[in-house]
């Protein structure tokens, strides 16, 4: 029997585990086989406080994991396949075992949507990014491209224009889905150019991004666009599949919370990108993990 089971091992989950284990709550982190969240795909992190020279994403997550273990958190490198929140204690199935806990913190994050190209895997962290806020500064005076046409894509293009020499926005249609005010800002930005009615067929380059192979959706004509970075902004998918029917989710699948971290089931809390479709930053996820841990601690004290 655990006091807390944390499901997820990104900044939100590991921060929560640091707080709960330091509070002497018996804590299990269901980290998953591929643990660490999206920062494991990030080459260098320069905007996380405390690292004036930056830190590699995997190194930051390794530090968080060791810090949680230092205070006594147990780490389980298994995928959670099933949960039961209908009775207490709560039950979490991972691998061949079922674990019980008095409270749960869900920090399973959200996964960026990908184009499904082999080159994405090879070049992630070598010019392919899913976070302009995180990585734009690395491409000062470079030719860059953003894939997408919604608010995130246009916000990314505007952010990139502060650093890059040129930003191409690649969109499969002939008009944007982004809000009107963002469209106006982008259209009035001399660094941002639009490539309409085009889809990405391949991202070029062996060890780093060198360009994009495009195909017109109206004519089928193909062309090469030379650039040194590609930012994917075609959306995120919250990792909430196993919670459907167990917790209240919004229309996009994000966990609905009240008072910051409380879900629709008393004693079950959520933190980070799994309930936050807006910010999607390591620091905001870590802060949410702290809040969830403190709320879980308070809940356990009141229900002891």
Give structural attributes.
single chain; 304 residues; alpha/beta; seven-stranded mixed beta sheet; five-stranded parallel beta sheet; 7 helices; 17 strands; 25% helix; 26% strand; elongated
Outline:
By secondary structure, the chain is α/β, with parallel strands linked by helices. It is 25% helix and 26% strand. The chain is built from 7 helices and 17 strands.
Q: Structural class per helix/strand content?
A: alpha/beta
From the N-terminal CA to the C-terminal CA, the straight-line distance is: 14 Å
Q: How helix-rich are the residues, as a percent range?
A: 25-40%
How much strand? 25-35%
Global morphology: elongated
Number of strands: 17
H/I helix tally: 7
Q: Write down the secondary-structure element order.
A: EHEHEEEEEHEHEHEHEEEEEEEH
Rounded Rg: 21 Å
Overall pLDDT metric: 95
List the uncertain runs: none
Main sheet record: 7 strands, mixed
